[in-house]
Amino acid sequence: MRYPALNDLIEETGDKYSLVIVTAKRSRQIVEANINDDSHIINPVSLAAKEIGMGEVEFLKTTQQ
């Protein structure tokens, strides 16, 4: 099983659409921050998903009615 599990990430963000948006935005931030750092290669999507799963990424949860 891969960490973090998709179901856990969806539960953390509220729904799969929010998960996609939060992951994409965080991934872009990671890429922009490491643009001059070629010392190691990191998959920004994997790193963003890990950070979301650990609760290190703050975002506004929306409620659907």
What keyword list fits this structure?
65 residues; mainly alpha
Roughly how many Å is the radius of gyration? 13 Å
User: What share of the residues does DSSP label as strand, in percent?
Assistant: under 5%
Shape: globular
Structural class: mainly alpha
Identify low-pLDDT runs. none
User: How many strands appear in the DSSP assignment?
Assistant: 0
Number of separate domains: 1
Number of alpha- plus pi-helical segments: 3
Main β-sheet description: none
For the terminal residues, how far apart are their CA atoms?
33 Å
Order of H and E elements: HHH
Average pLDDT for all residues: 84
Helix fraction, binned, reads: 55-70%
Summarize the structure.
The protein has 65 residues and is mainly alpha-helical. The protein has helices at residues 6-13, 16-33, 44-53.
Write up this protein.
- It is a single chain.
- By secondary structure, the chain is mainly alpha-helical.
- It has one domain.
- Helices cover 55% and strands 0% of the residues.
- The protein is built from three helices and no strands.
- The protein has helices spanning 6-13, 16-33, 44-53.
- Helix 1 (6-13) crosses helix 2 and helix 2 packs across helix 3 (44-53).
- The longest helix has 18 residues, at 16-33.
- The chain is globular.
- It starts with 5 loop residues before the first helix and ends in a 12-residue tail after the last helix.
